[in-house]
User: What shape does this take?
Amino acid sequence: MSTPSAPDAPAASAETAGLSSKGLSAGTIGLIGAVVIGISCVAPAYTFTAAIGSTVAKVGVQLPAIILVGFIPMLLVALGYRELNNRMPDSGTSFTWAARAFGPWVGWMAGWGLVAATIIVLSNLAGIAVDFLFLLISQLSGQPDVAALTSIIPINIAVCLVFVLAATVISYRDMQTTQKLQYVLVTFQVIVLIGFAVAAVVRYANGEAFDPTPFDLQWFNPFAVSSFSAFAAGLSLSIFIFWGWDVTLTMNEETKDPDRTPGRAATITVVTIVSLYVLLAVTLLMYAGIGDGEFGLGNPEIRANAFFALAGPILGPFAALVSLAVLTSSASSLQSTFVGPARTLLAMGHYGALPPSFSRVSPRFFTPGFATIVAAAVAAGFYSVMRVVSTNVLSDTIQALGMMICFYYGITAFACVWYFRKQWFDSMRNVFFMLLCPLVGGVILAVLFVTTLIDSASPSYGSGSEVFGVGLVFVIGVTIIVSGILIMIWQSVKRPAFFRGETLSTDAPASTRRLKEAAR
Assistant: This one.
C-alpha cells in the first residue's frame, strides 16, 4: 500500500477564495468508500434497536410512516449540503459554510454544535459497545451472569476506554485503513439485518410469528398518528436514527472528485438507510405486533433493545449474530464517527477559530492527529464522569442530542439558502435545490428544535430527572449551547482575526460576480 501524499494547495477561485488545503491525504476515498463510512457512522443496527421500542410507544403501527417522514428533512438537508459542498468542498462543512454565509459568529456555533453532538455520540457508542460485548460473551458461553458485568462501573469504564483507544488508533491512521475496516464491519452488519428481516417474514408466513399482524398500507399514513405531540416525539426519534450521514462531507478534502463525490455519497447513504429501516420496521411489525406481550414491540421491558429480545425467537441458534451485529455496529461507528469532529476541529484551528494546535496534521498519515486525540480524550472523560454520576444523566444527555442535531443541521440548511440567494432563480434546478429543499428542511428542524426545547423543560421529560424543577434534558441542552457561546467569546478575545472575518470571509457566489464583471 502506497503512503498518501499531502496535496498541493488548490488554485484559489472566486468561489473558494479564503478556503485552503489543510494537508489531508487527497484522493484516497471513492464513492463506495464514502458511502460505507457514512452507513457505519449512522450505525443502523445500534440506532434502530435502541429507537424502535420508544418510537412504537409513541406512534404504534405508524412506525414505517414516521420513519419516512423523518427521512424527508434529512434528505432535504442532504441536498442542501450537496450544493454547498459542490461550491465549497472543505472539511469544516457546517462551520465553514455557515461562516461564509452568515459570518464567523454563527459559523463558530455551527461548528460547536457538530462537535458537541458527535462527542456525545462517541461516548454513547463506546458504552453500547461495552454492553453488547458482555451480552455476546454471555450468549456464547451460556453464562447469564457475564452480562451483569457491564453494571460494575470500574469494569465498564475500563473496557470502554479500551474501545475508545482502539478506535482512536485506527482513526489516527490514514483513511485507507478506516475504509478497509469499515468494508468488513458494515457488510457484516447489513447482511445480518437483512437476514433478520427475511427470517421474521418467513416465521410470519409459516404461522410462527409471536403476534402475527397482516401488512397494511395504513402503516405508511402519518396522519393516522393519534396526536401532534406523539407525532413530534416520534419524528424526533426518527431523525436521531438517521444522524451521521454528514460524515461523508467532512471527508471532502480526502475524496476523489471532491466537488461531487461527498454530496452523492450523502444522498446514497440516506436513501440506503431509509430503505433498510423501512424493511426492518415492516417485518418486525408483522412478526411481533405492537402489544405489550413478552416479545411485542410495545413491551417496555424490551424497549431499550428490541433486537436482542427478538433474536432468539426469530433466528433461533443464530441469535448471537444479532448481538455481534449490534456490537459491530457500535464499534465501527465509534471509529468512523471520529472522522467528523476531528476534521471540524482541524478546520476551526486552520482558520484561526481555535488554537493553532488543532490545525496539526500527522506528517506520516496526513490525518488530523491532534484533533482526533482531543476528541477521544473528551469523549472518554465525558463518558467516565457521566457513568459515575448517574446512568440517567448519560441517557438524558443522549436525549439532548436531538436538539444539537436540529441546531447545527438547521443552521447549515439556512446557510445554503442564504449563501445562494442571488442564484435562486437562475434556473428551476436552483429554485429546487438551493431554495426550496434546504429551506423546508431547515424550517422542519427549527420547529423540532423549539418544540423539544419547550417540552424538555418539563421535569417529566426523558428519565424524569430534574434540576430545581426543570427537566434535566433541557438543562443539558441549554448548558451545551451556552458553554459554546462562552467559549466562542473567549476565543474572540484570544483570536480576533477569525471573528473579524480576516481568515474566513463571507463572499458572494462566484457565478454572480462573474456576471457582474461580464456586464462591466
Summary: The first helix runs from residue 31 to 42. Residues 63 and 345 are 37 Å apart (CA to CA). Residues 1-14, 508-520 have pLDDT under 50 and may be disordered. Residues 35-506 form a domain with the Amino acid/polyamine transporter I fold (CATH 1.20.1740.10).
